[in-house]
């Protein structure tokens, strides 16, 4: 699942800054929820986990579910019934059923014999345990082990928070609001739609029947086998029975959506009628990706399910969801409009489809037995969202995005002291479970699985995951089942050392928090000294006892880059290894950043690597070049490497022509930019960046796109042109303004693949009519991806009056668009791209903070304040923020205000820190000149 709760949070500098600090759209929902979860509550939930778990001696085998909804009128009330077939495995007088907010109107317990005859036993007394979300049925006389049916009738209300069985809406072509009902059950919200046994290991079959208005249609996991009319004019839609699956994977929707289909492939894409013309790409991509999975896994999707539908929803906080046979997405993650959708959005759409389709095997056919093993669902999906997309579209090189968009980002978050192991539980409550949907479950797990696959070799890994799925078909798994598959497939192969079993290898990575740094020190007398230590972002701990089974590869100067390097192992704290590398030649470890760890070298080897990068960039593999930049920056920040070495290394980027190393450099440059802006040495920093990008910029056209351009070159152009304009290089600002004005004047539209940069920076120096033009374009747009891009572009203006008027549209002003709550937050964060925008936001909040609190929520106000603090670098800026914080003392918690002030204090003190002084010295010593 891809998840997003407050999508607007990612709207901060979206597009232009997406390459710097973007959060995976499918995990962002949970990461924002985690900010609001009380840590003491999590500890309590973990301690009481067993109280919230169902007894293991009652197992559901089948649900017969009926629902009656009149959502077409906007009525939230619905009713239903469910027959829960239960395998009672020991004598009991109690049946526990999950229930969140439903009113049970009747219940009956039946005995079911082997011939499927049923006998009524009794109507049960029951109590409601609201805290644990149980309805507890008491049986008068204990029942013996056998098959039973619990028949329940119930009433409920469609939710309005995009969770459970919920109502949403859209505006049709005439502007009329249309309503629909849809579902989002992961992780434990099936219980809010109908009474059920809502744990992932409790798989059962489902037969669904939905009564609805004939102008609407119902869709669910399985195909419809019959539609029948009722005397009241409504219709019943009957669906075929599902395979055994977890309750959280059940899905249905009642709407007036249209669909396009490929009958031969048994795939359809649903969308609102006024957006159905944007569905073709998703259908085509879905077919190609499913074919790629079928061939790669050798276990065709059609062996399990007869069809797969995709649905684009205007309101879907989860981002995307892998419901078996009925995948759901936010519109901007599914719908593609030629001439409007950008290359970044197309990448997101393609990889998210691949992510959800990967789940059809990893999550649906084989499911984590409890949420502590969530990484076995999300890790595979994160890995194959890039690999399967690459198999479907090899010319786009999607797999080359994995390290910079997944692995390197999670290395940053996993370096915190508070990080958790991949296998981990915080309890069984709603908040405790959802807090596990984080970068560890997604990005770290995907990166670790990628490492496992490379160590085993791609063919052996493929055999292993086929075995893993086949052996656990329609079952639930934990780490043991994964290890068993690895042990069997590697038995008799010379892959793992004799002293490292599959279990020892796997558990060292999935059951320990954090990751190591591999220190490679050369004696220059025929030896390498290798040591490992846990890597922390902010300190060095030499006595940390954690040991990982580290697979590593080494190449040396002059080695062929085509030959696969041999795996070696470090399974102790330190080891001395013989080396034949001449003292004046470099060595490089963890080739192409395959392993999930950082690598540090002695200074002499670092400088030899730097010299190689300058003299012949391609003498070092592309992904290793990216890793060197990323590792050096983060090693310096943790005080493990002299910052001067990092900065000297970054100077090589002026010769770099590939996107992945530049993206790694982009993060480092952004970090320094955020601290240098407003400082006395800022001009020197501008000249430094100008020097790095100058040669590359000469090879790019900022405002045009070639028909045969590589995807990675599009990413590179966006990074370079963004820096060129941000550093106020005249040619960039002129070119973007000219391109924008040509569109404004009706001469030539801006190509979507350069629109984010052109609209944002062109607006900086364009006439007022350009702002009005883009705002009018936003008013007319019905494409959510384009609207998001335009909202962020409009926030780039440096005109104070325009900024003030624009911010007022978030709460309703003279300029008014039909913004939803998410877009209102997008507007407020969009202006953070410039200091003038930050100042405008401070002024806006002074007068309108109560609206933000009452309408968008206190957490949103706090998020905005913390964002302003992060961009406060000077005493004058601090004074502005202090006035605002004084104003907000009645609405913000004291710890939030203190956090903002602490951030500002660190920013103001930074120039006199080790980093600040060394960077200033480096800039002064090098005397960079304008390119």
Q: Count all strands and give the number.
A: 30
CATH-derived topology of the domain at 55-256: Immunoglobulin-like
CATH class of the domain at 55-256: Mainly Beta
Q: Mean pLDDT, rounded to whole units?
A: 92
Determine the CATH superfamily of the domain at 55-256.
tricorn interacting facor f3 domain
Percentage of residues in strands: 15-25%
Oligomeric nature of the chains = single chain
Strand order of the biggest β-sheet? 5-4-8-2-1-11-14-13
Low-pLDDT ranges: 4-22, 29-36
Principal-axes shape call: globular
Tell me which CATH architecture of the domain at 55-256 applies here. Sandwich
- Percent range for helical residues? 40-55%
Q: Biggest β-sheet: count, sense, barrel?
A: 8 strands, mixed
End-to-end Cα distance: 46 Å
Radius of gyration: 29 Å
* Number of separate helices: 31
Structural class: alpha+beta
Provide keyphrases for this structure.
alpha+beta; cell membrane; globular; Neutral Protease, domain 2; aminopeptidase; 931 residues; 41% helix; Immunoglobulin-like; five-stranded mixed beta sheet; 31 helices
If you had to describe this structure to a student in words, what would you say it looks like?
The structure is a single chain. The chain contains 31 helices and 30 strands. The protein is globular, with a radius of gyration of 29 Å. Mean pLDDT is 92; it is low at 4-22 and 29-36. Among the domains are: 55-256, tricorn interacting facor f3 domain (Immunoglobulin-like, Sandwich); 372-511, Neutral Protease Domain 2 (Neutral Protease, domain 2, Orthogonal Bundle), CATH 1.10.390; 518-619, Immunoglobulin-like (Sandwich). It starts with 6 loop residues before the first helix and ends in a 5-residue tail after the last helix. Helix content is 41%, strand content 19%. Helix 29 packs antiparallel against helix 30. It is of the alpha+beta class. The strands form nine sheets. The chain has an eight-stranded mixed β-sheet, with no helix packed on it. The protein has a five-stranded mixed β-sheet with strand order 16-17-18-20-19, covered by helices on one side. The longest helix has 22 residues, at 835-856. It is a lipid-anchor; GPI-anchor; Single-pass type II membrane protein. Keywords: Aminopeptidase, Cell membrane, Disulfide bond, Glycoprotein, GPI-anchor, Hydrolase, Lipoprotein, Membrane, Metal-binding, Metalloprotease, Protease, Signal, Signal-anchor, Transmembrane, Transmembrane helix, Zinc. It is found in: Cell membrane; Membrane. Its main location: membrane. Residues 59-249 form the Aminopeptidase N-like N-terminal domain.
């Amino acid at each position: 699942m891809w998840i997003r709760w407050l999508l607007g949070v990612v709207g901060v500098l979206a597009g232009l800054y997406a390459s710097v600090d973007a959060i995976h759209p499918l995990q962002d929902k949970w990461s924002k929820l985690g900010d609001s979860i009380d840590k003491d509550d999590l500890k309590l939930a973990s301690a009481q986990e067993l109280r919230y778990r169902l007894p293991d001696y009652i197992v559901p085998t089948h649900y017969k579910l009926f629902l009656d909804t009149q959502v077409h009128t906007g009525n939230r009330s619905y009713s239903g019934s469910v027959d829960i077939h239960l395998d009672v495995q020991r004598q009991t007088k109690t049946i526990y059923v999950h229930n969140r907010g439903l009113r049970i109107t009747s219940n009956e317990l039946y005995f079911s014999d082997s011939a499927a005859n049923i006998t009524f036993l009794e109507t049960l007394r029951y109590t409601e345990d609201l805290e644990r979300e149980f309805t507890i049925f008491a049986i008068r006389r204990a029942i013996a082990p056998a098959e039973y049916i619990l028949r329940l009738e119930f009433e409920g209300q469609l939710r309005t928070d995009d969770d459970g069985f919920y109502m949403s809406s859209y505006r049709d072509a005439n502007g009329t609001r249309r309503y629909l009902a849809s579902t989002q059950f992961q992780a434990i919200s099936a219980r809010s739609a109908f009474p059920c046994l809502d744990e992932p290991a409790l798989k059962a079959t489902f037969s669904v029947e939905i009564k609805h208005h004939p102008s609407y249609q119902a869709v669910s996991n399985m195909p419809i086998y019959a539609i029948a009319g009722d005397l009241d004019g409504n219709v019943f839609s009957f669906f075929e029975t599902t395979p055994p699956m977890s309750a959280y994977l059940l899905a249905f929707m009642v709407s007036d959506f249209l669909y396009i289909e490929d009958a031969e492939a048994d795939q359809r894409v649903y969308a609102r009628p006024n957006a159905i013309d944007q569905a073709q790409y998703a259908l085509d991509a879905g077919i190609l990706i499913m074919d790629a999975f079928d061939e790669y896994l050798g276990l065709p999707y059609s062996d399990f399910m007869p069809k797969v539908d995709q649905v684009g929803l205007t309101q879907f906080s989860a981002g995307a969801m892998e419901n078996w046979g009925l995948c759901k997405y936010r519109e901007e993650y599914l719908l593609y409009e030629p001439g409007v959708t950008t290359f970044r959005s197309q990448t997101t759409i393609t990889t998210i489809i691949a992510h959800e389709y990967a789940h059809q095997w990893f999550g649906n056919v084989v499911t984590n037995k409890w949420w502590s093993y969530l990484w076995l669902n999300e890790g595979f999906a994160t890995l194959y969202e890039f690999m399967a997309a690459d198999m479907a579209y090899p010319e786009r090189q999607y797999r080359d995005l994995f390290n910079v968009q997944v692995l390197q980002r999670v290395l940053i978050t996993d370096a915190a002291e508070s990080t958790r192991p991949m296998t981990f539980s915080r309890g069984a409550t709603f908040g405790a479970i959802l807090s596990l949907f984080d970068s560890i479950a997604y990005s770290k797990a995907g990166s670790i699985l990628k490492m496992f696959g490379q160590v085993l070799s791609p063919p052996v890994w493929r055999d292993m995951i086929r075995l893993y799925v086949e052996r656990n078909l329609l079952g639930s798994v934990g780490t043991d089942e994964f290890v068993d598959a690895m042990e069997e497939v590697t038995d008799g192969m010379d892959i793992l050392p004799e002293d490292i079993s599959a279990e020892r290898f796997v558990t060292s990575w999935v059951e320990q928090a954090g990751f190591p740094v591999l220190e490679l020190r050369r004696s220059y007398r025929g030896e390498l000294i290798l040591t490992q230590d846990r890597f922390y972002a902010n300190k060095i701990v030499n006595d940390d006892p954690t040991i990982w089974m580290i697979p590593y590869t080494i190449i040396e100067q002059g080695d062929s880059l085509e030959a696969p390097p041999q795996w070696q192992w470090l399974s102790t704290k330190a080891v001395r290894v013989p080396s034949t590398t001449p003292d004046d030649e470099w060595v490089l470890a963890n080739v192409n950043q395959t392993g999930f760890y950082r690598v540090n070298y002695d200074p002499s080897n670092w400088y030899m690597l730097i010299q190689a990068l300058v003299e012949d960039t391609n003498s070092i593999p592309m992904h290793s070049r990216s890793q060197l930049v990323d590792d050096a920056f983060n090693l310096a920040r943790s005080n493990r490497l002299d910052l001067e070495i990092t900065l000297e290394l970054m100077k090589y980027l002026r010769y770099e022509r590939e996107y992945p190393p530049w993206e790694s450099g982009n993060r480092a440059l952004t970090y320094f930019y955020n601290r240098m802006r407003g400082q006395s040495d800022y001009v020197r920093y501008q000249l430094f960046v100008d020097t790095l990008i100058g040669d590359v910029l000469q090879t790019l056209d900022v405002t045009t796109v070639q028909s045969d351009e590589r995807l990675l070159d599009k990413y590179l152009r966006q990074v370079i042109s963004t820096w060129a304009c941000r550093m106020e290089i005249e040619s960039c600002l002129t070119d973007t303004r000219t391109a924008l004005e040509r569109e404004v004047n009706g001469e030539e539209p801006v190509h979507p693949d350069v629109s984010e940069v052109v609209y944002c920076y062109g607006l900086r120096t364009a006439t007022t009519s350009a702002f009005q033009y883009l705002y009018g374009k936003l008013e007319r747009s019905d494409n959510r991806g384009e609207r998001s891009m335009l909202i962020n572009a409009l926030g780039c203006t440096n005109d104070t009056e325009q900024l003030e008027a624009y911010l007022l549209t978030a709460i309703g002003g003279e300029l008014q668009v039909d913004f939803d709550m998410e877009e209102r937050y997008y507007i407020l964060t969009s202006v953070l791209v410039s200091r003038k925008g930050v100042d405008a936001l401070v002024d806006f909040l002074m007068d309108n903070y109560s609206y933000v609190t009452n309408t968008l929520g206190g957490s949103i106000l706090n998020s905005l304040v913390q964002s302003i603090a992060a961009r406060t670098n000077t005493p004058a800026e601090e004074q502005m923020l202090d006035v605002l914080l004084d104003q907000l003392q009645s609405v913000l918690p004291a710890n939030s205000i203190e956090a903002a002030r602490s951030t500002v204090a660190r920013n103001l003190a930074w120039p006199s820190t080790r980093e600040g002084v060394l960077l200033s010295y480096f800039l002064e010593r090098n005397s960079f000149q304008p390119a």
